[in-house]
Amino acid sequence: MKTCPYCKNPIEEFWSYCRNCNKPLIANLEDALDRNVRFTYGEPEIFHLDLEEESDAYDDIIIKDEEIDQKIKKIDSTLESKEVLGEPIPGSLLLEKSSLYYRKRDIPEALKTLELALTNFKEENDLSNIAICHNELGIIQEDNGFFDQAIYHFNRSLEILKDLNDTSKIVKVFNNLGNVYFLIKDIEQSYNYYQKAYQLSQQENFIFEEVKSSSNLVEVLYLLKDYDRIKGILTKNLDFFKDNEDVFGMIQTHIKFGKLYYMMGEDFSESLQHLTKALELIELIKKNITVYIKAKLEWECFLYLGKIYSLWDNLTKAENLFLQSLEAVRIFEIGDNIKEGEILENLAELYLSKGDIDKSIEYYDLSCEIFYKFGDNRKNAELKFKIGKIILEFEEDTSKAINYIEEALNIYEDLEYIKECAIIYHKLGDIYLHKGITERAISNFESARDYYQKMQDDYSANLLNEKIKSLRNQTDINIL
Fold first, then answer.
1. In which element (H, E) is residue 10 found?
2. 452 pLDDT exceeds 90?
3. Does residue 112 lie within any of the structural domains?
4. Distance CA 167, CA 174 (A)
5. HEC profile of 393-432
6. Does residue 268 form part of some domain?
7. Which of 103, 104, 106, 288 has the fewest Cβ atoms surrounding its Cβ within 10 A?
């Protein structure tokens, strides 16, 4: 008899996942058409804590909406019967019902049902299930964009799990905390939690969690530009997924390799090869997976392929790929999502390179709205400054350009980004000088000079001092 590569327990040939540890076991893709796939690999991957028996968590099971509705009706019938008989409502049923709503992406119902389950488990003092509820609440709040609430629930789950010494679940919550900090751009905290998850899974020999934790860690390492470490992790992970015939892991690792070679900027053909391979594997299993999962796997492939073809000046193909990426994100995300902001920004850059200025500004504006909605103020300011400069260069509408540039300046000042403030004040000074509004120009140059002094950039500060003196002398001469 075969054994599970993760927990080493006996498994049946026809199983698509291990009934002992719930890990995926896709050994033969051609025979897997009717199998339920239990795990996908996100960017970065979230971790649901195991519930009771086989209907464990919120993982994307390939199941039709009608089947989910039937299961919900069956649970509702059981709950109604218990209510009529005056019997206690089992929290486990509410937890299962919430998971079904989550699979349908009915987030409000999932949240409401999960909160009821948490109340029941608290009354029973069922610490393990209380921890599970807090983790799942954290995932839902993260989906909703309430990151502070997500962090609160993940920390509550972690506190309980540490008391219970449940190291397997602790690894998963560490990853989830890493994810939410990654989303709010707290890279140091994100790295710390991913590293904790990785080290603990290594220590406890949780092979599957170790691979997924290292895969999450890669997302932070991209930002740190630690490309050698990324390459080592991905090479090891790809070998693991190939050995275990884990197609989802292979797809995600090829995508990560594609991103790596794109970011390194040395071999775009290598990037293209990995991204194309990922799409080929997705096509191979498309009959096995939902449209939702397919879109979740494809969006970054299309995005980075679009970036590559844009660099190669194949703008028509790049545009089609960016639009495919945008369509994919809108399939699997709830409402607006920050991923849309990234895609819209790439479309804006593409239209700018094509000389379609109106369309470029339109897409930059849409991108700004997304980043603003999700609290990425730095990116919002960066794009507003860019729009202002585009308007100044191509539309020559100075007043409109100044409005965008000053909006960017206000954001940067709130963020206390000294360098960016200095650059923008300098730019505004030049704009007003060009318009012949000398006093406004001098005022902006003085603000820029003050910021350069804070940065201890004496060279730039001295240059501006000379410029200000010269302008004041000219003003005095004109008055005389």
1. strand 10-11
2. yes
3. yes
4. 10
5. HHHCCHHHHHHHHHHHHHHHHHHCCHHHHHHHHHHHHHHH
6. no
7. 104
